[in-house]
Amino acid sequence: GTTWEQTDTFPGQIISRIRFVTDELGFAVSNGTHWNANSTIDLPDSGNVYRTTDGGDSWHTVHSFTGSGFSGVWFSNPMQGCVTRNDGTILRTTDGGTSWEPVTIALPPPFLLTAVTGTPNGVLYASGYRPDNSGAVILASIDGGASWQVNHYSTAGVGRRINNIYFLNNEVGYAPAWTCVWTTANGGNVS
User: pTM of the full predicted structure?
Assistant: First the structure.
């Protein structure tokens, strides 16, 4: 971290998240939700999934979508990964990002997804909220992202908009919301 240098650029795209699987293999997604100058949320109408195989020196589009931007990316290994879209969709790949398929989510729409992460034992989590601000949501998957269940849902207090999610290990996780942080010390009690 002593010096930083700019690598390849992404034309017209705001990079939402980035995830490296190895020193050379990485993925990035573009155009997640973001606050604008009027303190409202912009929902971009398109987004891309990018892959690098040279440590970030160059990036190539592996998936594009018109209608919603991408908010999160997670890969458990070089072949299996998931991306989240602003419109509440999760896409999964089992071939290193060559093809992407939507997965089943056990939560009725509408909701926005803001991030996706995983734990060393393979449990995946996605964070988000209802667009009308009526509820915060954390989803969990125990089958590599093929299906997702509601792990946490809250309509109370200031934590109704979860913006990100991070796990320190299999048990300890953090999900920052508006003016609070949701925490778990038991992996969200996923079974």
Answer: 0.90
Q: What is the mean pLDDT of residues 40-63?
A: 85
List of residues 6+ apart from 6 with CB closer than 8 A: none
* Residue with tokens 């070089």, as numbered in its chain: 78
Longest dimension (CA), the chain: 46
* Residue among 102, 158, 112, 120 at smallest CA distance from 139: 112
Residue 29: predicted pLDDT: 94
> Which tens digits make up the pLDDT trace of 10-46?
766 788 899 999 999 999 999 755 555 666 666 667 7
Q: Are 111 and 68 in contact (CB under 8 A)?
A: no
Q: Is 154 helix (H, G, I), strand (E, B) or coil?
A: strand
DSSP symbol at 85: E
